[in-house]
C-alpha cells in the first residue's frame, strides 16, 4: 500500500475544466504537448516585450497553471519569456504521474518543445520545491545557461527520513537525487532557501551548498518561509543581478 500510494503523499494536483480560460495581465500563448501514451501536457508561454531568452519554470507540488502563472511577472519584467508547465494530472494536463522516469521524460519533452525557437545558452531553468528535483535532472542532461533552485531538497530519500519516518526509505519510488545531479551540471547554479522554511528543511540546501562549483552561489533568505519566495525582496535583488 505504501509503495502504490506515494503519489498522494508527494503530488497534490488541482484539475481545471478543459474549457477553462486563463486570464493574466501579460501576453501568453497556451500550449499542449503530446507525450508518450497520448497524454497531453498543458503549458503557458509568456512573451516579454523584448526577449533576452527563456525561463523554463517547474512549479511546486500543488495547484495548477491558473495559480502559478503570476510567477512569470518578475522574469517578464527582466525581459525573459517564461514557459510554465503543468505536470500530468495538474490543471488541464491529462494522465497521472506514476513514476520518476515518466515525469523526467515528460519534462524533457516539454523542454525540447519550449526551447525550439531559442538558443539553449539563453535558457534559464528554474525549479521550486518539488520542481527542483526534475529541474536539476533536466539541467544535468542538457546545457542551459543557468539553473536556479528555490527551496530544494538534498534528495527525496533524505526528505523522507526527515518527515516520514514511518515509511521505509528503500520503498520510495521517487528519489530525485538533486545532490547527484549537481555534480553533473556545467551551468552556474544558484540556490535560494528561506531559513524559516517549514516544508523543506533549510539544512537541505546547506548540504547541497557543499557540492556547488566555485562560481555557484547559495543564498539564504532570512526570515523566509516556504511560500512566497518569488516576492522576497532579497530574492528579487539577486535575480535582477543574475538575469541582468
Describe, in plain words, how this protein is organized in 3D.
With 244 residues, this protein is an alpha/beta fold. It has one domain: 3-Layer(aba) Sandwich (Rossmann fold), CATH 3.40.50. The protein contains 9 helices and 10 strands. The chain has helices at residues 6-10, 65-68, 72-77, 100-114, 132-141, 156-163, 178-182, 203-209, 233-242; strands at 12-13, 28-34, 40-46, 53-58, 62-63, 80-85, 123-128, 146-150, 189-194, 217-221. It has an 8-stranded mixed beta sheet. It has a two-stranded parallel sheet with strand order 1-5. Helix 4 crosses helix 5. It is globular and about 45 Å long. The chain starts with 5 loop residues before the first helix and ends with a helix. The model has no long low-confidence stretch (mean pLDDT 92).
Q: What is the strand and helix layout of this fold?
A:
Blueprint: H1 6-10, E1 12-13, E2 28-34, E3 40-46, E4 53-58, E5 62-63, H2 65-68, H3 72-77, E6 80-85, H4 100-114, E7 123-128, H5 132-141, E8 146-150, H6 156-163, H7 178-182, E9 189-194, H8 203-209, E10 217-221, H9 233-242
Parallel strand pairs: 1-5, 4-6, 4-7, 7-8, 8-9, 9-10
Antiparallel strand pairs: 2-3, 3-6
Helix pairs in contact: 4-5
At a glance:
This protein has 244 residues and is an alpha/beta fold.
Strand order of the largest sheet: 2-3-6-4-7-8-9-10
Task: Identify low-pLDDT runs.
Answer: none
In CATH, the topology is named: Rossmann fold
What's the CATH architecture name? 3-Layer(aba) Sandwich
The H-and-E topology, N to C, reads as HEEEEEHHEHEHEHHEHEH
| CA-based shape | globular
Overall pLDDT metric? 92
Terminal Cα span: 49 Å
How many structural domains does the protein architecture include? 1
Major sheet description:
8 strands, mixed
**What percent of the residues sit in helical stretches (DSSP H or I)?**
25-40%
Which CATH first-tier class would you pick?
A: Alpha Beta
**Helix/strand/pairing class, anyone?**
alpha/beta
Amino acid at each position: 500500500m505504501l509503495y502504490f500510494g506515494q503519489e498522494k503523499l508527494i503530488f497534490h494536483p488541482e484539475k481545471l475544466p478543459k474549457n477553462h480560460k486563463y486570464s493574466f495581465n501579460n501576453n501568453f500563448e497556451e500550449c499542449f504537448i503530446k507525450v508518450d501514451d497520448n497524454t497531453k501536457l498543458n503549458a503557458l508561454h509568456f512573451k516579454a516585450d523584448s526577449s533576452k531568452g527563456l525561463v523554463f519554470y517547474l512549479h511546486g507540488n500543488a495547484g495548477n497553471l491558473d495559480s502559478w502563472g503570476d510567477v512569470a511577472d518578475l522574469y517578464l519584467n527582466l525581459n525573459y519569456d517564461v514557459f510554465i508547465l503543468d505536470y500530468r494530472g495538474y490543471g488541464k494536463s491529462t494522465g497521472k504521474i506514476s513514476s520518476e522516469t515518466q515525469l523526467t521524460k515528460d519534462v524533457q519533452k516539454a523542454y525540447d518543445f519550449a526551447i525550439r525557437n531559442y538558443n539553449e545558452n539563453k535558457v534559464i531553468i528554474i525549479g521550486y520545491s518539488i520542481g527542483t528535483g526534475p529541474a536539476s535532472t533536466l539541467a544535468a542532461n542538457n546545457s542551459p545557461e543557468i539553473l536556479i533552485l528555490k527551496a530544494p531538497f538534498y534528495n527525496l530519500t533524505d526528505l523522507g527520513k526527515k518527515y516520514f519516518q514511518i515509511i521505509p526509505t528503500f520503498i520510495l519510488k521517487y528519489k530525485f537525487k538533486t545532490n547527484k545531479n549537481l555534480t553533473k551540471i556545467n551551468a552556474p547554479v544558484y540556490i535560494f532557501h528561506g531559513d524559516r522554511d517549514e516544508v523543506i528543511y533549510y539544512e537541505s540546501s546547506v548540504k547541497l551548498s557543499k557540492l556547488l562549483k566555485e562560481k555557484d552561489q547559495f543564498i539564504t533568505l532570512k526570515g523566509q518561509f516556504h511560500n512566497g519566495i518569488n516576492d522576497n525582496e532579497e530574492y528579487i535583488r539577486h535575480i535582477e543581478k543574475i538575469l541582468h
